[in-house]
Amino acid sequence: MKNILVLCTGNSCRSQMAHGYLNHFLDNRAVKVYSAGIETHGLNPGALAIMKEDGLNIDHHTSNHVDEYAEVDFDYIITVCDHANENCPYIPSKNAKRLHHNFYDPSKLEGTDEEKHAAFLKARNEIKDYFKNFVEEYRLI
Fold first, then answer.
1. 97 pLDDT exceeds 80?
2. pLDDT at residue 135 tops 90
3. Domain named Phosphotyrosine protein phosphatase I: which ranges (predicted)?
4. 27 vs 40, residue with greater confidence
5. Is residue 41 within a helix (H) or strand (E), and if so which, with residue range?
6. Any residues with CB less than 8 A from the CB of 17 and at least 6 apart, and which?
7. How far is CA 136 from CA 26, 68, 113, 124, in A?
8. 77, 88, 104, 116: least buried by Cβ within 10 Å?
9. What does the alpha-carbon distance between residue 26 and residue 136 come to, in Å, rounded to a whole number?
């Protein structure tokens, strides 16, 4: 079984969406997906809502700290924001393929409801495309 870690600052938005799409694209194959943060901020309501619009329910996810997975040997560690990439503690998975992509953070936008929705939609679609390509490129399906 392969283990994938998606890492962000607060494990509330981008990493949660990525986790949801990885589970969706992998469809219960022999891969375990984890998401974590270098902090924990709880689940972002905007992320939950935008994922539901695409038919994915991530309400059951939890916001976890990367230290909770210290004993897991990861095959892939994917950081989804520059802050986590630059500030992540050492993760002792010697053979892990480490990837990084800084996704736009919709949770930081202040604006109208329509502007916020557009920001979450933009981030969600970027994350969806990236992780669909990741699963195909690394032949996980």
1. yes
2. yes
3. 2-137
4. 40
5. none
6. 47, 50, 51, 58, 123, 124, 127, 128
7. 10, 28, 34, 18
8. 104
9. 10
